[in-house]
Amino acid sequence: MDQEFVYIGPRKIAVWPENQPIKPIVTPIMTTRFGDADQYHDGLISKILKVEQELRISSPPATRCLGGQKIHKAIHEKWNCPELDLVKARAIALFKRTLNAKQAHIDGFWINIYRQWESVGPHCHRRAMASMVYCVDNGDEDPDCPLSGRFSFIDPRIEACCQLEPGHMTHPLMPELTAGTMLIWPGNLLHAVSAYAGTKPRITIAWNINDRELPGSLGDAFKSA
Asked: Number of structural domains, the chain?
């Protein structure tokens, strides 16, 4: 694949850094972590929180069990935000590399901002050949609450979730999701985010991606990651 770049101010940043590793967590869940995230996260966080504040003023905040405040495509696609453009390009690149796909069509693309005690219950994503999440800021660590804001898979089709008996989910699979980490998995796998105990915003970006454009629209309701 030809190398692509995004300019953030005077900096020219490669969409896919040289020798960027893609690692399996368990089949078919893959992960990669971008070591240059500190070069663009400050600008990205600043933009996201500015828009989030405007949304919370203009409309009631999301309920605590629906994944916090969402910034959907209708809003963020109008931004002039090269930092978000870079992350989006990296999501498309990871999709193509992981699935050996020539094309990538984004069916859903949204930003999540979790505030204290916000969470999202078990769900999966329809119309998604692959679902993805990117960690912008994992928020506060809480040694007294190790499950705070943890992203987890809770699906009986994942062997690692069924350590006592096949087909019976007993153990959540909780991948490491630090700043700069991107995960990709089949959209039909059940996943959730536990209640976030911190006060610093926990910020992630999520996508549903397919190798072809689908007719119609899923809509924005209940999209979370």
From this structure: 1
* Listed residue (130, 150, 121, 132) closest to 222, CA to CA: 121
Could you tell me if 89 and 190 are in contact, meaning their C-beta atoms sit under 8 angstroms apart? Answer: no
Q: In angstroms, rounded to a whole number, what is the distance separating the alpha carbons of residues 134 and 206? A: 6
Distances (CA, A) of 216 to 95, 107, 196, 213: 22, 10, 34, 9
- Would 71 be classed as within a structural domain? yes
Count of all residues that appear for the chain in the document:
225
Tell me the CATH number at 96. Answer: 2.60.120.620
Buried b (16+ CB within 10 A) or exposed e, 162-181: beeeeeebeebbebebebbb
Contact assessment for residue 67 and residue 112, using Cβ atoms and an 8 Å cutoff: yes
Mean pLDDT per 10-residue segment, the chain (225 residues): 87 96 97 97 96 78 80 87 97 98 96 95 95 97 92 97 96 97 98 96 97 80 46
Kindly report the pTM of this predicted structure.
Answer: 0.93
